[in-house]
Amino acid sequence: MIEMKVAGIALDAVTRSPIVLLKDGSERRALPIYIGQDQAKSIIGAIENQKQPRPLTHDLIANLFEAWGMCLEKIIIHSLQDNTFYAILSLKQGKKKKEIDCRPSDAIAIALRTNSPIWVMEEVIADASIPVDREADEEERQAFRDFVEKLSPEELIKQAKIENNDEQ
User: Fold this and answer.
1) Is-contact 46 59, C-beta < 8 A?
2) What is the pLDDT of residues 42-80, one digit of tens each?
3) Is there a contact between 86 and 80 (Cβ–Cβ < 8 Å)?
4) Which of 32, 80, 92, 139 has its CA 20 to 30 A from that of 16?
5) Are 124 and 143 in the same domain?
6) Are residues 63 and 76 in the same domain?
7) How far is CA 150 from CA 105, 125, 154, 159, 162, in A?
8) Do residues 34 and 66 share a domain?
9) Is 105 found in the same domain as 120?
10) Mean per-residue pLDDT of the chain
11) Residue 4's pLDDT is what?
12) Cα 120 from Cα 131, distance rounded (Å)
């Protein structure tokens, strides 16, 4: 799993549908997830620390967790099937743990309100993420190619002996 942060909300240029954009810690990969208008407003409100005069649905859920002594340990976006993302809320109450099925957009809105981490399975990132920094990716690939080109069997044996001696 890879921990991700909410980078913001964008609008699809063609459909004008809101998209929540998650980025990994290195900001090299982004995961766009299409969401509804209400969830977009809720996520923006949480990002901007807006306080509503009355609790909205995601605020109510966070308040229920607190009132019942439950901690949202993390959310996990665990799969992508037929262009639909699936997530769970990973809750803890005392020694009890529960996982509850949840739409990713709702899970993200709740996670932002409870300062809980957002985790995404590697398979989901591999299937649906987009590169953010193509230049850095290409530099990394080129550095690896250069390393492999300069590598000789003798150098590998020499390096293995050095590491072996360091461990002893």
Assistant:
1) no
2) 999 999 989 888 999 999 999 999 999 999 999 999 999
3) yes
4) 80
5) no
6) yes
7) 47, 32, 11, 14, 18
8) yes
9) yes
10) 88
11) 95
12) 16
Which residue, chain included where needed, has tokens 């230049």?
135
Domain count, the chain: 2
Percent of the chain with pLDDT over 70: 85
Compute the C-alpha angle 128/133/136, nearest 5°. 125
Could you read off the pLDDT of 33-49 as tens digits, one per residue? 999 999 999 999 999 98
Residues in the chain: 168
Residue 167 pLDDT greater than 80, yes or no: no
Same domain, 108 and 139: no
Predicted confidence at residue 147, as pLDDT, reads 67
- Domain encompassing residue 31: 2-129
Distances (CA, A) of 131 to 26, 55, 135, 136, 143: 11, 37, 10, 10, 18
**Domain shared by 142 and 113, yes or no:** no
**Are residues 91 and 154 part of one domain?**
no
Same domain, 52 and 124: yes
